[in-house]
């Protein structure tokens, strides 16, 4: 990518070439003092998004849904197609991240890119991002609880998973991840480095086992097998629902953006973290998806199982080995949830720093001992637990939580990209940018976001009943309703988008680290 930046942007940052600015000077030029410890290197920044995307966790948790909503054809070809679409979204986001490397990320850039109504654009982007982040933390914890119970059932057949137990185990998992995030960012960085190798090595072990151990595999043509067991008569609709598997997996890559204030050379390393995490996850995920699909002995037998991917593992490698592989999967899910909560807390910290949340002064405070936004961590934990509660009675809770995650995040991704498109040549890029490809890539990204958002708000199972209802639209309506009520009654008079704490020299004097 070209590293040239226009003179007008240089003037906006004090007539100094932004590439020559150190990270703190870049932050000061945007009006913020340094409050967080900057210890994330390029690999650490990549690791946060790669871990949140987490192809092992995403594919195993969504595989059963896709197996019945389109079957192998949607799982493999849908993975490939959606991965390309998500890469368009990620590249457009990366371009924005290079221009505005702050923890505020999406809502901050929306406020800066809007020509008019900056406060409103920033406000709604931030609340959508908040809802999506909370949904991601909740969904990952919920998935880990489901697979942990699957492992327990294999070990002790008398154990019966229930919705109540799933919710309680999810709560324990999320609270434990909150405790881990309460300590230093250095600990989180170390755990994220470990998670990358856990994912890569674990994926290699699972794929190798599925390729070498089973005495038979499906023929090459099996990848074209299509099935619709959703309860809907339209095969097209059922197949489109199957795309949820890939879209659910490819969420959370804004984590690299949110960690900008804790990343070295953030104007370059944050956008690279976004694009590299998506590309590497797409390739690794395709390998894992094919390994699972071709190891399935019988479509109907797998479709009838309580957990289709577990059934494939047992049939392919035996019960004992399947238990060991499930430990890898559960570990990947736990790492994923930890990284997602880290990103979630940084978004809350930044949004509160600009006074956009109830009790903002409380949520953007930083622990003087650990230099981490501890209060924001526990707000993220609490909100995630509230989102998990419908699982107490709903058997479609997981797909609903996933929909909140996908729709909330992707709409938040799309707003800054749309505003960047509206600016046209007036957009001032950072060191990492797409050049003349910025506009066409952005158009594709926004188009995909609109399509997928509509799709995932629709019913996921038929017949639609109290227990099968997709409550994602309700959750998002409540979030946006509260945000709108607050905006029109009070916030619009005092919130005008990202705030500046003063001139660069003034905010530099406010640095806490």
UniProtKB/TrEMBL annotation:
InterPro entries: AA/rel_permease1, Amino_acid_permease_CS. Keywords: Membrane, Transmembrane, Transmembrane helix, Transport. It is found in: Membrane. The chain crosses the membrane at residues 42-67, 73-100, 121-147, 167-189, 196-214, 234-253, 274-296, 316-341, 374-393, 399-419, 440-462, 468-488. It is a multi-pass membrane protein. Pfam families: AA_permease_2 (PF13520). The keyword Oxidoreductase does not apply. PANTHER family: AMINO-ACID PERMEASE BAT1 (PTHR45649), OS04G0435100 PROTEIN (PTHR45649:SF26). This is Amino acid permease. It comes from Streptomyces nigra.
